[in-house]
Structures are given as structure tokens and as C-alpha cells.
Specification:
single chain; about 110 residues; mainly alpha; 2 strands; about 50% helix; elongated
């Protein structure tokens, strides 16, 4: 199975011998650089995260990495939102509104007038 590296300074921290074992290297300026996360997640089967113990990359970085991986997979954003809200918020949205809006947006012209 081929492996890739996504990191801030992988070329300066790993020897050429180790780097030669990887399919590719994606350099990033930080955990929140969306374009690098997208390049690093494109076409992969698995992701191993080795962020430091600082709070920002631990929470926000992992969420950004998850979203980058999701952009390369098929998933239901409404179910993902519902799961996220249930885990992180005391607010409980009424999901029927999303269904009503979607029905009106994608209905035949003139429907819902």
C-alpha cells in the first residue's frame, strides 16, 4: 500500500532514504491550510493523524482534516451536521425546515408559490 506525507517541514525532518519510501510529499504551512489538506487527502484509503498535543490542531486541525477527507468521499452533509450538533451543542435544530426548503428549491417552477 503506498503512503504519502502531509506536513509543514517533511523534507527537512526526514532523510532522503525515508522519503523515498513514500508515494509523495505534500508540504503545508499549517494545520489550517485547506488546499494542502485537500491535496493530501485526494485518493487516499486511510489517514493517520500525528498532530501535536496543542489544543488548536487537536480539535480544529482534526475537524479540518476530517472535512478534507469528506470532500473526497460521498456523504450526507445533513446527517453529518445533525451528528455534529448532537455532540457539540445544547441547541436542537428542527430538521423539518431543511427538508421544506430543499423541497421548495428543487420543486418544479411555480411550485410553492
Amino acid at each position: 500500500m503506498p503512503f504519502r506525507i502531509l506536513g509543514r517541514n517533511p523534507l527537512s525532518k526526514l532523510s532522503p532514504e525515508i522519503l523515498s519510501r513514500f508515494e509523495g510529499v505534500t508540504q503545508s504551512t499549517g494545520y489550517d491550510e485547506i488546499a494542502s489538506l485537500d491535496r493530501g487527502c485526494a485518493g487516499v484509503d486511510a489517514i493517520i493523524n500525528a498532530y501535536s498535543g496543542r489544543p488548536e490542531p487537536t480539535l480544529e486541525g482534526q475537524l479540518l482534516l476530517l472535512r478534507a477527507a469528506e470532500r473526497h468521499e460521498s456523504y450526507d452533509p445533513f446527517i453529518a451536521f445533525q451528528n455534529h450538533v448532537e455532540l457539540t451543542s445544547a441547541i436542537r435544530p428542527i430538521y423539518i425546515l431543511s427538508g421544506v426548503f430543499a423541497y421548495v428549491f428543487f420543486a418544479a417552477p411555480g411550485h410553492g408559490d
